[in-house]
Amino acid sequence: MYYLGLDIGSSSIKVALVEVATGKSVGVVQEPETEMEMLALKNGWAEQDPKEWWAYVCQGIKKIKKKYAIDQDQIKGVGIAYQMHGLVLVDQQGEPVRKSIIWCDSRAVEIGRKAYGDIGEDICKSHLLNSPANFTASKLKWVKENEPELYKTADKLMLPGDYIAFRFSNVINTTISGLSEGILWDFKEDTVADLLMEHYGIPKSFIPDLVDTFGLQSRVDAKGAQESGLAVGTPILYRAGDQPNNALALNVFNPGEVAATGGTSGVVYAVTDSLSGKESTRVNNFAHVNYSKQTPRVGKLLNINGAGIQYRWLLNNLAVDSYEEMNSLASEIPVGSDGVCLIPFGNGAERMLNNKDIGTRLVNINLNNHTKAHVCRAALEGIAFSFVYGMEILKSDGISIEVMRAGNDNLFRSEIFSDTISTLVSQDIEIYNTTGAIGAARAAGINEGGFEKFGTYITNNDHVKTFKPLSDKSAYQLAYENWKKELELIIK
Q1: Which terminus of the chain, N or C, has less C-beta within 10 A?
Q2: Environment class of residue 201 by beta-carbon count within 10 Å: exposed (0-12), middle (13-18) or buried (19+)?
Q3: 233 burial via Cβ count (<10 Å: 0-12, 13-18, 19+)
Q4: What is the pLDDT of residues 118-138, one digit of tens each?
Q5: How far apart are CA 362 and CA 314, in angstroms?
């Protein structure tokens, strides 16, 4: 028997199967095999058609069933992870009234910034734990202001994962965690964020019914079964945004536990029981998957845009053939890269730098002494230093780091990168070979098996290695302080 997991990304849809009894991954497929299209009618806009997500979900389910000779009756539940912050607006029949305004669309930035000032910083921090910023609620306000005829036809808002669950079941609902990522949850009042809805002039009727993150949310109906290839009655048992889900996939649930991702962008996601919004303009605060009013678990999410994309740019533009070659070149150079510093923020405005767009800077190059090996080392160190800098911001907001886990991404496969972070924060980094889709599939069983059993699936099946802090951190500390001086000269 199997659980099926979905990861609804903006680049592709991933579908995973895991064994119910052991949590062992059977396999993962991707649809489409190339990257999904994104519509950008203007600079800074990004939209996708929710119906395309559903079509790829259905294709992926059929593909994985065929690949592993799985019958529909062997799939005992579904878990869904999805790209966060997207806005799906549907009419009373459940038809999308427009394409989804997805996470990387920046059209509502000014709306959110103005709301933060008008409502008041202290109120936003204590109730929402965030600035309204460019999140789902602000995107809905943009539609209300700029597309009033479409807005009049809309009946409900959904996050992307809510829409996929709806297509399976014809039932519209959402979670507290999902609403919090849209800045639609009031943590202080433990209810939908009426203060922001009223400020934006949006009726509360737009908000779907609430269900728990874990447990029976809905069941596949006849139409959903016909289209997806799942059996009628198959339960939808879990739903969460991709970053809370990535933390779940790494068994990160409790205060002091931190999940890190080193993909195209970098993410540090730290769990706390504190409802602090002190750094709300630089750090996002969302209800974690196991949040409740009685036992608050908040994920503080710090994003670093200029991470893996920086290293990939070097791979594409230096005379090197692989990441392995770059890592080998970098290992020939001492800690600190002989003074060369790379400031890796060339992928747009950085929230943790108060939304400044400072670009990538390569400084202190000596044309007589330095080589591409120095650039490779400086890049790995610079990206690692940006993670450490971000973790200092998190610590200033009350985070403690007792456990740190990361996925087996390109960056965390590098000893230089992982050793640098581990040594500077004086913390082991446990590396696990898992994915969001596998995590979502396993999470479908949490309501029955519990968190402890879920944790054994990860430790028994996924652990790759653990990086430990080096005993002498002086060279790393000096290199980091030099890098930080260069950064602070730029951002002053």
Answers
A1: C
A2: exposed
A3: exposed
A4: 999 999 999 999 999 999 999
A5: 12
Measured CA to CA in angstroms, residue 177 lies from 213, 319, 360, 452 at distances of 8, 45, 34, 21
Provide the CA 123 distance to its chain's centre, in angstroms: 26
- E strands present in 105-204: 156-158, 173-174, 185-186, 191-192
Mind listing the pLDDT tens digit for each residue in 354-387?
888 899 999 999 999 999 999 999 999 999 999 9
Is-contact 33 15, C-beta < 8 A? Answer: no
Q: Does the pLDDT of residue 265 top 90, yes or no?
A: no
The two structure tokens encoding residue 420: 């640098």
First to last CA, the chain: 58
Note whether 268 and 403 are within 8 A (CB): no
**pLDDT for residue 44:** 87
Other C-beta atoms within 10 Å of 358: how many?
15
Going from the C-alpha of 8 to that of each of 32, 251, 457, the distances in angstroms are 12, 20, 22
Distance CA 250, CA 259 (A): 7
Secondary structure of 373-433 in the HEC alphabet?
Answer: HHHHHHHHHHHHHHHHHHHHHHHHCCCCCCEEEEECCCCCCCHHHHHHHHHHHCCCEEEEC
Count of CB atoms within 10 A of residue 425's CB?
Answer: 19
Cis peptide before 148 (omega within 30 of 0): no
For the chain, the average pLDDT equals 95
CA 440 to CA 423: how far, in whole Å?
32
User: How many distinct helices (H) and strands (E) make up the chain?
Assistant: 17, 23
- Amino acid 277: pLDDT: 85
Q: What does the pLDDT average to over 131-150?
A: 97
**Count of beta carbons in the 10 Å neighbourhood of residue 372:** 14
For 115-136, b/e burial (b = at least 16 CB within 10 A) is: bbeebeeeebbbbbbbbbbbbb
Helix then strand then coil, in percent of the chain rounded to 5, is 40, 25, 35
Question: Could you tell me which of 250, 303, 427, 402 has the C-alpha nearest to residue 419?
Answer: 427
The tens digit of pLDDT for each residue in 174-218 reads 999 999 999 999 999 999 999 999 999 999 999 999 999 999 999
Q: What pLDDT band is residue 306 in, cutting at 50, 70 and 90?
A: confident
Could you give the CA distance from residue 397 to residue 268 in angstroms, rounded to a whole number?
Answer: 14
DSSP 353: G
Q: b or e along 264-300 (b: 16 or more beta carbons within 10 Å of the residue's beta carbon)? A: bbbbbbbbbeeebbebbbbbbbbbbbbbeeeebbbbb
Count other Cβ atoms within 10 Å, centred on residue 110. 12
pLDDT attached to residue 3: 98
pLDDT at res. 263: 84
